[in-house]
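TICKET: design request
STATUS: open
ATTACHED STRUCTURE:
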């Protein structure tokens, strides 16, 4: 018998695989209609699948070969917490920095709330400082 936390972890793993493969339509269908994104720098939560789609598409445009590696993942109740490692090649503009062709790697700590069989809310804390250092014009490689 599969427990709710196990099902929730499986849902997140499936969503990450869909994003990694570029199937954003499939990943988007795993979100509730009123999906809530809690992101650093935003004064209030962002609401809607379109917000998620826009942010995820921006990452895939900048890093089309993006790999998502779950280093740790666990579920409890209706929450799933993940420590992720992202790796990819900076092949498109990201936050107004033109493509550098550099390989990048950064981590993110993420917490998700699951409603039924869909992802309803996320709290993400990506290490954007590390990422920006890797792609900034002053970065030495």
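STATUS: resolved
RESOLUTION: sequence designed for all positions
ATTACHED SEQUENCE:
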């Amino acid at each position: 018998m599969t427990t709710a936390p196990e099902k929730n972890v499986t849902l997140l793993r499936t969503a990450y695989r869909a994003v990694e493969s570029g199937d954003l339509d499939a990943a988007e269908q795993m979100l509730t209609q009123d999906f809530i994104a809690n992101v650093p720098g935003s004064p209030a939560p962002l609401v809607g699948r379109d917000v998620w789609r826009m942010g995820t598409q921006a990452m895939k445009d900048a890093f089309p070969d993006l790999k998502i590696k779950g280093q740790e993942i666990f579920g409890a109740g209706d929450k799933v917490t993940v420590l992720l490692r992202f790796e990819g090649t900076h092949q498109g503009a990201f936050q107004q920095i033109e493509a550098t062709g550099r390989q990048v790697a950064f981590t993110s700590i993420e917490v998700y709330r699951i409603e039924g069989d869909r992802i309803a809310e996320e709290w993400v804390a990506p290490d954007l400082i590390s990422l920006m250092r890797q792609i900034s014009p002053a970065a030495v490689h």
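CLOSING REMARK: The chain has a mean pLDDT of 93. The first strand starts at residue 31 and ends at 38.
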